[in-house]
Every structure is written in structure tokens, then in C-alpha cells.
């Protein structure tokens, strides 16, 4: 069976954002990925937004691009960059001043690149970026405009007219179709949460119809805007994943990430699901890059974070320090030590901090080991 075109040329078995590959290559976690927050502006206010508390309606100047490029150039192990926001293209001046030069830098150096966008604005701004970009990453958690209105503007603090939401929804769908048709690799991410867990097959079908080459699926964890949303049980999460695998289109790449289910579990239901994921066609489970092989840089302050959402305080600033020494410092941090396990036969390098905090507060992962891999 042939996989639908993967224009980014990313090998499923060597997903460059998955820290397991650099861990194997170097024998320890190294910094291979930098995510840059280029704006805190956004036309939406999604209820699950991982950076929702940082969003603004007006923002000040950014760091000189030169400084960011110098810090990237210093990282000899760098393999990928990601550009995130807010909506990175919200202020069109960002495209020429930051986004295109960063993507061009990545292309020239042979790095893979990703932008996280909502694709709801005019097509021209995305068309401008597409030739230099490897992965266009969008969120897609909807089956219709009503879902989009309920999820996408929940935290806007004002009534958003149905007509306005419908226009943005239509833009997103049409932009995605046009971009995938033009050959761009679009990866649509859905969250497994209290709204979506019974709707994933329908959401998947719409993602396939938009021509996306990859469907990314991650459980939602309580952070930032999502802090007070209901959390699913592990059983509900497993059921949701099974329901999706029952119907998914085998020609597109299914990428599951930040799963709260591990090979060291004593629950046979976890092993049943993990085995299904391991043998399903064109399906991968990504270890979370945050704090494993990736750091996030805020391009306004220069502050460096372990994740793009700031529940953990900044670990340093690029005005003063290069990124590899900051990463080395993070590797000795007590929080990192909490989740720094590794079972190579299971291709697993431990839970991320949100997963541990949500489901495994009292579990010592260092005392566990993958079973039967
Ligand atoms: S690496 Fe950690 S989380 Fe993964 S199977 Fe091993 S002990 Fe469990």
C-alpha cells in the first residue's frame, strides 16, 4: 500500500522531531530542535490554547533577527525548527521580517521546518511561505462551524457573530485544500478531549477530505486556557484512539503524541492499544520533544523555555547565553530528572511533565521498565 504523497520527504521511521533518534545517535539527549514564538497576536481564542494566557491584542518590538540566527548557527546538532504564535502570520510584516528569513536559513542548512498556523486568514500569506516550508501544522477539532465557533472563540471575552466564525472556518478549509493540492505537507492535529473523544472518526474523515497528508492526535492536558477543562480517564482515551483506528484512512500518516500510555504499564488494556499502534499501517507514536531535544525561544524577550507554554519558568535568555549550555543546564534540573527514563526496545523516553502531573503523580518511572517489548 502506498502512502499518500509526503512532500516534505520526512521518513516515518525517522521523524526528526522525535527525540528517540538523537538519543540513540548521541547516547544522551541533545538539542536538535528550536521552536520560536514570533507573535502573541491571534484572531482566535481557542479554549484549549496552550499559550492562551500569553495572547495579546497589541505587541511590542521583537529581538533582532540577527541575534536569533546567530544562536541557531551555534547549535551544531540542530535538525529542525518550528515557528509558532499566536497566529504567526497575523501581522503580515512578520512574514518578510522573520518567518521567511528563518525558513530560508533552515532550507539552506538542510533543517526541517514547521509552522503552527490556524490557516484562517487570506490564502496569499500562506502561499508566500509554502515554498520554503516543510510542515504546515494546523489544529482541527471540528465537525462543523458550530464546533468551530464553540471551541475557537470560547475565550474571546465577547460574542463572535456566527457569520464571522463561518467565514474563518471556510477560509481554513479552503486554504488547507488549496495548499495540499499545491503540494504542501499539511499535518492536522486533533486533541482527544471532553468535546472530541466521541467525534474523532468524523473529524478524521474531514481531515482526509481536506487532503492533509498527516493526522496528528494528542490527548489534551490541563495547561493555560485548558487548565480548568475536564480531563478524560485513561479508559476514555484508549477508547477514543481505538475508535479512530477502526476507521482511519490507511493512506495517511497517523502520528500519536504525548500519550499517557506506556509499555511499563501493568494494565493489559494499555498493552493491547500499544500493540495495535505498533502494527497499524503508517502509524507512529512520537516521544514528546519538549525538554528532550527542543527548547522554545520567545522572540520578544529572548527568554528560553522548555515548552512553548510557560507553566515552567524560563531557564535563561539568549541575550546572555547560547542555547546548548542552557539545554545542558536543563538536563540536570530536578523536573527533567523526574521523567528522564528510557526503554530503548519500546522506543520510549518517558512521559512529558504534563502527562506525569495529570495521571502519574506518585509514579516513579525510574523504578519501571517496559514489559514484553
Ligand atoms: S521509558 Fe519510562 S515511561 Fe517509557 S516504558 Fe520505560 S519506564 Fe515506562
From TrEMBL:
A matching Pfam family: YfkB
| Radical SAM core domain span | 26-255
CDD domains per record: Radical_SAM
Under which name does UniProt file this protein? Radical SAM/CxCxxxxC motif protein YfkAB
Q: Does the keyword Iron-sulfur apply?
A: yes
Q: Which InterPro entries does this one have?
A: Aldolase_TIM (IPR013785), rSAM (IPR007197), rSAM_sf (IPR058240), rSAM_YfkAB (IPR031004), YfkB (IPR014866)
Upper lineage is: Bacteria, Bacillati, Bacillota, Bacilli, Bacillales
Query: Keyword set for this entry?
Result: 4Fe-4S, Iron, Iron-sulfur, Metal-binding, S-adenosyl-L-methionine
Q: Which organism is it from?
A: Marinicrinis sediminis
